[in-house]
DNA sequence: GGCGAACCGTACCGTACGGTACGCAATTTC
DNA sequence: GAAATTGCGTACCGTACGGTACGGTTCGCC
């Protein structure tokens, strides 16, 4: 077993290349046909491995699902915004970039499939997958946003008491109900096209609400 | 078969009381244990009816699921806001009531369970349940909101080009990512407590964005 | 060159579910 | 009061899945 510390595509905690490739194929199956299509036999066939290996590596089916979420989350690295001096224009630019990135992430095929998977499991087993997805996904991108907002406040461009709350407002302005509609099956492409232009308007609105007079 | 035109609890299209009671029990099972707990045998046992009757009434399992959504949607009647003359204060009051109602609906146990169900099925079968839920649920409450917004515009209190877009902004300000977090399994009560106070702030923000100077 | 670990392919087992069929009781209808 | 409809309870069937076991093969290691 060759443990790859630093695999080609963000291998996370002690996964071999082979195991990463298997998870990749499993994610493909999930995107194609939803949870129902994600059978252990199906994964083994698609990945050219044996079921026995799957159980050896991931324990059971739930372990496989958790590993898929962790693996995918490990691929998304939050870009650190250069914390240089912020001007009003550069803050607006950074916020707009963030808005577009957020829309891109949320409307991604794999992201949608994993969210559907976690939501489907939320009723039983204490929502283990949901918490995992939340911590590895939302928290990560939320940190990037709050860091940006804090920088804006430090530069005297925006004002708020609670960064989390301000981020919640920004998120709502950008996303509205787009995410839920996509999760319910509305066409990804169409919705993304509808919401992308609103990214700038959302930033405008946010700055109207939280911006300080110059 | 006694067809009840006007059952006690909003019987929709040609459902007998018995069938309504069965759907009620089925919804209970869904809330308790998620989709996995919603087996045909389980529903029959819980509702004291036979599987054969289930198939006679609803065709197959999917028909049962669709009937559950339609039945639940039929129970939610949108309250027509009295379209009297709006003042700035009454518009704000109506918007706040709407915000609280929206939070109540979205955080309802049955609503969450049905949304989870529809999202779980969204990958296959053309998202039939998702569309059903969308049309019977979101559209309904959206109409109420846009009507209120239009009334506010007519009264010269708020200004916007597209009522749908304005509603999207209002929705995002109120809900943010609360709905998704609840769908992922975060505690309903805690999240509702967290978001309820924000209803008024959301309305404030909305009026800041769309209100006209008096 | 032989040993052992990892692993693939396949077969197998128990279970649980969707859907159907049947026997019998209750209620309605003529 | 008999015939028919309705529907409950149960048993049954085929299938598909999660999980396990086993034989054969490759590959690294001493």
From TrEMBL, chains A, B:
Q: What is this protein called?
A: TetR/AcrR family transcriptional regulator C-terminal domain-containing protein
Note the PANTHER family from the entry.
Answer: HTH-TYPE TRANSCRIPTIONAL DUAL REGULATOR CECR (PTHR30055:SF146), HTH-TYPE TRANSCRIPTIONAL REGULATOR RUTR (PTHR30055)
Q: What keywords sit in the KW lines?
A: DNA-binding
**One Pfam family for this entry, by name?**
TetR_C_7
Gene3D superfamilies given for it? Answer: Homeodomain-like, Tetracycline Repressor, domain 2
Q: Where is the HTH tetR-type domain?
A: 16-76
Q: SUPFAM superfamilies of this UniProt entry?
A: Homeodomain-like (SSF46689), Tetracyclin repressor-like, C-terminal domain (SSF48498)
List the PROSITE patterns hit by this protein, alphabetically.
HTH_TETR_2
This protein's species is: Shinella pollutisoli
The family database entries (InterPro entries) matched by this protein are listed as:
Homeodomain-like_sf (IPR009057), HTH-type_TetR-like_transc_reg (IPR050109), HTH_TetR (IPR001647), Tet_transcr_reg_TetR-rel_C_sf (IPR036271), TetR_C_Proteobacteria (IPR039536)
DNA-binding region spans which residues? 39-58
